[in-house]
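Annex B, item 7. Sequence and structure tokens for protein A, then protein B.
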Amino acid sequence: MLGGNFSIMEKALEGATLKHKLISHNIANVNTPGFKSYYVPFQEQLRQMINQPKLGLKITSPKHIHNSGMKYIVKQTPGDTIGARVDGNNVDIDHENAEMAKNAIYYNLVINQINKQIAIMKYVDSEGRR
């Protein structure tokens, strides 16, 4: 009923949530010697999912197996990156805080789009009853 846009927005929220968790993990380990930060290029992966040919399963009953699509791939930042400290930790707290802020804006944008789509569907449903 909800269509492809909602599944794309759902995957976008999953990616933003995962990114938030990874950033939080990186920040929590800012003082851990030898720690290498993690990241997930979920927007790039989401773009690839959207552009790939649709070969999904046809679902004619709610009891059928759902092919939910993709899982995001988490990557570790290489140890030889700029900003690695003497103790081998490569977490840049300023970078992580900036990424957290950008990710929060992205997450809120997707939530607002979902809310707008739901409001449109409610309006159409209420007008259809008249």
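Protein B:
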Amino acid sequence: VENGVIDSTVPESFEGIPIISDLKGLPEAIRESGANECIITDPNVSGDALFEVMMRSGRRRGIEFRIAPSLFNCLPRKTEIDQIGALPMITLFREPLSNAARIVKRLFDLTISLLALTIISPLWLLIALLIKLDSRGPVFYKQERVGMDGRIFLFYKFRSMSTNSDDTLHREYQKHYIAGNPEANLGDQKQPVYKLATDSRVTRVGRWLRRLSLDELPQLFNVLRGDMSVVGPRPPIPYEVEAYDLWHRKRLDMKPGLTGLWQVSGRNRLPFDEMVRLDLYYIENWSLLLDLKIILRTLPVMLRGDDAY
């Protein structure tokens, strides 16, 4: 901006903090206000002009300058700033887990899944028998899901619905849910819901399995195969991903999980955007201790059947 004018339409102040629209007037404004910090928010400001002002105004007086990047929405919470020559660089994309962390998480997944399969194997036999007695069809339900980095994998569950069920209703519901308008009621309730509460496709045994989240147990095989993790974001269906905004896709940066922050923090009561924010928090703050805490919180949620349909 050669003449120093950034924007002539901005207000003079915001919540008592002076706003300067003329870069050339910034040194005088700093002197008059006694400011010790200056925040640059205009993405079009000239770098050379700003550098000159910083040298004249800030260096001698210890003024701290902050620059708000215009691409803020694409920045993760944790960023790395380094320098190539004299040019500062912000690292936007990086592996969410280091090589060592991935190995630790994988060993943890194998240990938990093998232990769980050993302990609950009698329960599997009971569930399989009840499914066969209740309705015609296979014991297991297989479906394509989207995993880490958008990779498609085959996802296993105990069958809780009648065979050859039409998914049109669920597709329509998910479209509204992801768009943030779940008030488009597709069940028989008269209030907004964040999961299809009334689904005629669900069998009698399936309703019980879903209430206790027991239909999810076969996903332990997905964990053993490496498609999933014990803890991670919920694995979406391909047609759900098609409705995602770009920032929603950040949740595909880590393997999906059997449970996660979403499941223990409100589950089906949460709007979709809030669910994604929980997933991103988990991805950016992963630790083995966090996984253990989520697993311990999952068990009572399952037993109570909180917000499950």
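Comment on protein B: Residues 18 and 205 are 65 Å apart (CA to CA).
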